[in-house]
Amino acid sequence: MNSQIAKKVQSLTTAEEMRNQTKLVMQPYANWEEYLTPAPLSIAILGELVFISSKTDFSINKNPPKDGYKYIRYPDSFRACLMQVCNSGWGAFNEAHKNMDQIRLHTMAVPDYMKTAVKILFNENDEVIQALLPGQVENIRVIADDCLELAIATEKRFTDVINIIQELLEACVNAEHFYGQELDAIKKKLDEAKLRKQSSEEATKRSEKAMKAMEEQLKEAYDSYNKAMDSLPGGWEMIGMDFVAGLSEGVTTFINGVTAVVTDPLLPIYTAVGKIATKIALTKRHAEGQESAVDDIDIINIYSKSAEMLMCTVNVQEFVQDNTINWKDLYDQKNKYTATNFQAKQFKRINESLEKSPNCKAKNDAQDICDEGIAICAELEKYAPEGKCEEAKTKDLIERIRNLTKSARSFDSKSKDITKSPSLAPKPPMMYKEESKSEKMRASQRASENARFRVEQSRAQLNKTREIYEKSVENMEKNQKELTEILITMRNCEVKEIDFNTTIQMLVKGMDAMGRVKEQWEKMVRFFQMVSNIVKTCLSRTLKDFASTSEKTKSLSYNAKLFCKDLLYNQAFQATNIASLVHMISATYSEVSTKHLMDRVSSLGKLMTMDKEKPEFLSEREQLQNSCDEAQKAILLLVLKNKNEFERKSAARVEKIDKELLAILPVAAPEEIKSIQAAVQSGFAEEEKGESGFTEEEKGESGFTAEEEAGYV
């Protein structure tokens, strides 16, 4: 039964399945709707500014800054300033279209490099791996760096537009052309723009911290592996494999979590001045209190331990059968060793590693689980040599062990929620190969419980993702409606009514819309920083460890070299996963830009060069207005279509897991099902914030079937 469950889980977690799962889980956070919907509106606003600029001109150079203007070229002419905004905006959209298409083409090549890298990794010849793998991984890094440059260049163009608008508004404030409520409103908008900039800078610092933390995480994983394997009792390979599985999943969880930080869903939501100010005030308050330096990366680092903690608790619960403790298997009479001592050491190691993290609720929850795990293991060690204890004590221990498992499951579910990691995680190739060869398979009951827990976790995760996506689309539609109504109001103004205040309102809305487009480009920049840094860490740290690892470590079938291979695979796979997500976004943007944006951008360019006095100018303006409205409607239809497609795929994924995995599990007791469901819900309910290029002789035997190899690429 256990072998059948393992194979079914592996078939549900092939590389292709996991890429699709990543897209599903991340779609509400990396959604391109936020990316595209402001674009036609931005173009329409630029068109209105061209029209307004044909009216009365005046100077805004009354009280210039001491050092002069940084971005405005012609402060003596408001009309010229408006045209500068339009020119800059036109250039930004042209650059976005060109660069996004190049990103689409670049990311298309990443899966092929991944396939070749996996083929090399499956090879048993170390010299071949060391000679050929760096080249393939380097190819992915080069693509990431090229895309990074393209994203940075595009982000800079939109930043330039925002800077010009911002400085233009500041010049208008200084020139004292308007007073009262209008002045206060503009000042608030300018403050909001500065806070957005501050938020962006903080995100960049967070990204830099994440890369350093990633390298430390990999070093810690490698050191932990070596220390744990040295202390592993003889003949306990399967317990060692459980430990390594938790360690490997921890690395993957951390990388997924950092990716989630890159696509922070709060960033676009905090657009109102009050909300941004509240967010920053809360951050400052935390900085002054007990939760001093805690941030997203610290939280993710803590939650990345969840898989190891769960594995330890499950291994302790394995000795509880029905309502008794299996003292016979718990204590090794020959070597005078209690089986749970190994788990106690791992709880202590995790607890020590958590000490480095700043104080927060996540740390407290994790340490509570570790402390209770250590205490339970100490109790078991005390009674294990005699093989018995009082009935009341036995009952108390069993209850504590079950509660510990429930807490660990809840913490792991919260970890999956916060880090956006898939609930069903594939075993790395070398581990899966060694486990498949092993004669010591886990008890079917335990394997069934674990599979049932993962099924329930997957269902809860996808259901929550559907809810968040639903709200995301609703917010997008609401924002779209508000901005469109403002634009219609402005268009309905008679020419003689278009005064200075109307122009200022248009500029403010233009800055808002451009700001939203820019935020999404900032996400793209951090996406590629992620891919590039994962690969650099992979090349510098893990490949170095692989090259330096000797076979002096404990003579297990799964040794340090195979562990390094799995770490290399995990990193390359995560880099490919992110690239696949970006490819989805870039392909959609390129398609929409081609069909609905670039004709409007060209029309804007034409409008800017026309004689404002000729009737053709008004005709071109009307045409631009209509085409922008059509683009808005077309994008909205595409949003709704993709929302339906997302719901269909989510439901299909849950149905597939139920049909293929849940169907083969034995019937469980109602109490067990309720316990699992309660643990999962408590975790998700509460929120904190190919060809290889080498000869047949070089290839050697991988030990994998063609089907298995295909599953890993």
Task: Describe the model.
By secondary structure, this protein is mainly alpha-helical. The protein has a domain at 2-230 and 442-711. The protein is 77% helix and 1% strand. The protein has 25 helices and four strands. The protein has helices spanning 2-12, 15-26, 33-36, 38-52, 78-108, 110-121, 126-174, 180-230, 237-262, 266-269, 273-288, 296-303, 306-317, 327-330, 341-354, 361-383, 391-419, 429-437, 444-491, 500-548, 560-609, 615-660, 670-685, 696-699, 706-711, and strands spanning 320-321, 324-325, 331-332, 337-338. It has a two-stranded antiparallel ribbon with strand order 1-2. A hairpin with a 4-residue loop joins strand 3 and strand 4. Helix 8 runs parallel beside helix 20, helix 9 (237-262) runs parallel beside helix 21 and helix 13 runs antiparallel to helix 17 (391-419). It is elongated and about 100 Å long. Residues 265-292, 550-554 and 688-700 have low confidence and may be disordered.
Search tags:
713 residues; mainly alpha; two-stranded antiparallel sheet; two-stranded antiparallel ribbon; 4 strands; 77% helix; elongated
What is the overall pLDDT average?
75
Radius of gyration: 29 Å
Number of helices: 25
Distance between the termini: 27 Å
Low-confidence stretches: 265-292, 550-554, 688-700
Question: Which structural class should the secondary elements be placed in?
Answer: mainly alpha
Residue share in helix = over 70%
Number of beta strands: 4
Outline, from the CA principal axes? Answer: elongated
Beta-strand level of the residues, as a percent range? under 5%
Strand order of the largest sheet: 1-2
- Main sheet: strands, sense, barrel: 2 strands, antiparallel
What's the order of the H and E elements? HHHHHHHHHHHHHEEHEEHHHHHHHHHHH
